[in-house]
């Protein structure tokens, strides 16, 4: 194990964007700056962010607002700075791979958002590059750190479900088109030429969620579509939505498990959370969201009877049992940052690496192709 550093300086590229700012900068790195990174032996490493991006005005405003002394629009200069230990990337996908290659060449540990690249070929090339280095490289797999999914994984590990049969997932919400009310997501999300599309965005998540909860994805059948073909951008100008805003997928998981996940930015929410997963097994079922998880064991399952002539008197939602936290389950992004930075200090690999991210890019590519070709496609195993 290398000597424990007193300070880790982290260059953060893309923090002017919504996710990079809220989850990675404010709720993770600035929180760790205030607390310090506590290691297993109780020692504390100080955290210092360096803000990096293309817009000097936005960066200077962020730096002043959060008392961050160092910021820059010169990525080459920051990567050449020997005091910078880690490079983080939350830019748009098209800019990510070149910047990460430069960071690896400069000897920086790398932590990055996904997709890691625009194509599977490029994602695998990055994974090869990372594997040849002695650097710690990790990819954000935030949803596995959410309290609801932590509880769901715990149930799997404890054998609660018996033989797992299926998973059903619902994700999404209504994103306004921008004409009369401003959209909640940036306009590039709806232009395929800019790397937008819900399949590219979400199938990378679903791959690691399915792997992390159930097992390897063996095949995919998908139907993608653009339900709203026109939208209005941040300036109020109309534009053609060329990227898919909904994707309906069926995934075969090793062990005979079938998963079905609907992803949509054109759905109004009638569920408890913006994302929910139901897992059904021979011994019980569970429904998990961002924070909560409820279960219904076989021994406590009611016996509904279908009768369309009478109103249902079953209080279905009341028949489920909440799963307790039983642990300190804080912000999922921050929890993974802590794990990754501890790996950096220890000089060991991070469990969610560039190869795991490449499998997410692969699933997104195959999902789009499945929709175009109208058929089920196998998901080949990839390795380095």
Structure description:
By secondary structure, the protein is α/β, with parallel strands linked by helices. It has a domain at 7-142 and 332-353: NAD(P)-binding Rossmann-like Domain (Rossmann fold). Helices cover 32% and strands 24% of the residues. The protein is built from 9 helices and 18 strands. The chain has helices at 18-35, 56-66, 75-79, 93-105, 120-132, 147-157, 198-213, 332-346, 354-373, and strands spanning 7-13, 37-38, 44-52, 71-72, 86-89, 109-112, 137-139, 164-172, 217-225, 230-232, 238-240, 246-253, 257-264, 275-281, 284-288, 293-297, 321-322, 377-378. The strands form 3 sheets. The protein has a 9-stranded mixed β-sheet. Strands 1, 2, 3, 4, 5, 6 and 7 form a 7-stranded mixed β-sheet that branches.
Distinctive features:
single chain, 384 residues, alpha/beta, Rossmann fold, 9 helices, 18 strands
Briefly summarize what is shown.
With 384 residues, the protein is of the alpha/beta class. The chain is built from 9 helices and 18 strands. A 9-stranded mixed β-sheet has the order 17-16-15-14-8-13-12-9-18. Strands 1, 2, 3, 4, 5, 6 and 7 form a 7-stranded mixed β-sheet that branches.
